[in-house]
Amino acid sequence: MGTPCGNCAQPLDGQRYCAQCGQRTDIAPLQWWVLIRQGAEDFLDWDLPWQRTVLDLTLRPGQTVAAYLDGQRIRYIGPIKYAFYALVIATLLGGANDLVQLVDADKPAWLRFIFGNLPLYFLLMTPVAVLALRLAFWKSPRNTVEITAFALYMLGQTALVIVAVGLIVAWTPKAPAESPLNVLLVLIALAVPLFYGLYAVVGFFRSRLDHALIAALLAMGATLWVAGGLWALLAY
User: Fold this and answer.
1) Does residue 28 register a pLDDT over 80?
2) How do residues 202-227 score in pLDDT, each as one tens digit?
3) What long-range pairs does 222-225 form, CB within 8 A, spacing at least 24?
4) Interacting residues of 222 by C-beta distance below 8 A, sequence separation 6+
5) Adjacent-strand bridge partners of 24
6) 3-class secondary structure, 116
7) Is 69 within 8 Å of 143 (Cβ atoms)?
8) Residue boundaries of the structural domains of the chain
9) How far is residue 196's CA from residue 161's CA, in Å, rounded to a whole number?
10) For residues 79 and 200, is the Cβ–Cβ distance under 8 A?
11) Contact partners, residue 16, CB within 8 Å, separation at least 6
């Protein structure tokens, strides 16, 4: 009896591909070169289960990323491809641009810049978020490459959330920034990524909710601090 397939648990007898599901049998722990190679292969292959990846990341994000890292590579789209095309979709649909109207004109320029360029902001801040998660969960068996894969999946999913909220904003009647409707939309735009991120962190790191909350606040605080610092450097 051979080693079971990481995707479907079918016993393997030395073959290169699983006879049951077709996944490669030489799945190794995720390393930088594996992550990059997987991304390069995924860019050239659209015949992957997009629907399953989007649905599972929406319903159980942490567990989905953990399953991918633990061997279910053929079941889901790779993190680089997912993040890249989600950012492309968010940019083409311009969902972030519609969020600018939710911020008062007298708010700081860097805050309006972030609201107007959320996909780009999240992309640039991904390394900061990875570092913050690495520090917050330094006892976790997940290595930095795996945390990076988790952050890329969350980047893609957040970009799709931005598109959804942006479309809602675009379809609602124009109103003053301080109107109850716009206040509600601002709360949704801020709360959905926060609670989704907490849910994802708990599932991925198998942590307690209070630990996940501390990690999420640390990651968000670090990214906002870096973003404000970068804006100050660019402005002056």
Assistant:
1) no
2) 889 887 777 767 776 776 666 666 66
3) 222/128, 222/129, 222/131, 222/132, 223/125, 223/128, 223/129, 223/132
4) 128, 129, 131, 132
5) 17
6) helix
7) no
8) 1-28, 32-235
9) 10
10) no
11) 24, 25, 26
